[in-house]
Amino acid sequence: MIHTYAGETIRFEINYKNRKSIGIYVDGYGNIEVRAPKGTADESVIKVLEEKWEWLQGTLKEMKDRLNGPQKKVYDHGESFLYLGNSYPIKIYQDQHIQHDHVLFEGDVLHIHVKQLEEEKIKQALKRFYYQQCKVLVEKSARSYQIHFKIKPRSIKITDNSRNWGTCDSNLQLTFNWRLAMAPQQVIDYVVVHEMCHMVHLNHDRSFWRLVGKIMPDYKNQEQWLALSNWKMTV
Question: How much is the pTM?
Answer without folding.
Answer: 0.75
